[in-house]
Amino acid sequence: xxxxxxxxxxxxxxxxxxxxxxxxxxxxxxxxxxxxxxxxxxxxxxxxxxxxxxxxxxxxxxxxxxxxxxxxxxxxxxxxxxxxxxxxxxxxxxxxxxxxxxxxxxxxxxxxxxxxxxxxxxxxxxxxxxxxxxxxxxxxxxxxxxxxxxxxxxxxxxxxxxxxxxxxxxxxxxxxxxxxxxxxxxxxxxxxxxxxxxxxxxxxxxxxxxxxxxxxxxxxxxxxxxxxxxxxxxxxxxxxxxxxxxxx
Length: 248
Description:
Elements: E1 2-11, E2 14-24, E3 29-33, H1 40-48, E4 55-60, E5 63-64, H2 70-74, E6 77-80, H3 92-96, H4 109-122, H5 139-150, E7 157-161, H6 169-186, E8 189-193, H7 197-203, E9 206-211, E10 214-220, H8 230-237
Parallel strand pairs: 3-8, 3-9, 6-7, 7-8
Antiparallel strand pairs: 1-2, 1-4, 4-5, 9-10
Helix pairs in contact: 4-5, 5-6, 6-7
């Protein structure tokens, strides 16, 4: 579905991506792990076209995304943002239906509200939540609303940016289960970026570790614990000592 070839991106003198090569199969769930500041979010932004890479190629089903029709390209994606990124001035259903009310073939408000309530139900939220504002919801509920918005238009590809950040372990487990269920049910291709190993084990079919601007290791999640790569082992076990330099 998605192929990255020798992807490079620098910000001034700082090289963030130094030649990333990655293949994400159709209908699979890829989780990209790596320390803070390693370029995981930049990688997603490059795929979406929010950041222009300096070099390299990104293809979606074999088509170079640089040549794709922008509106049609983005219509294939859904995204759960790290901080929720809900619009405070819009009611919950309006947040969920944001895309449905816009574009070349928008729904009417009653249609969009009905569709939003259906997606809210899919993530375990009752219809009465639809007319509340984000500020009236807990962090876990806001994350569910963000997830409902990500799947509102039934996208082929869904990105999850640190989906459990700021959640307690129980709610994080709930969100992980929801993500896994939704991806499997929809047959969607998913890319998740996280440093939460419980999320990795719950969500991933395949794992890629981004370190020093390149994919250090990639493979099935079932092979992750036995992989010989020392950087991977240091990261997944949270060891202070190892090839990944820590902050002293």
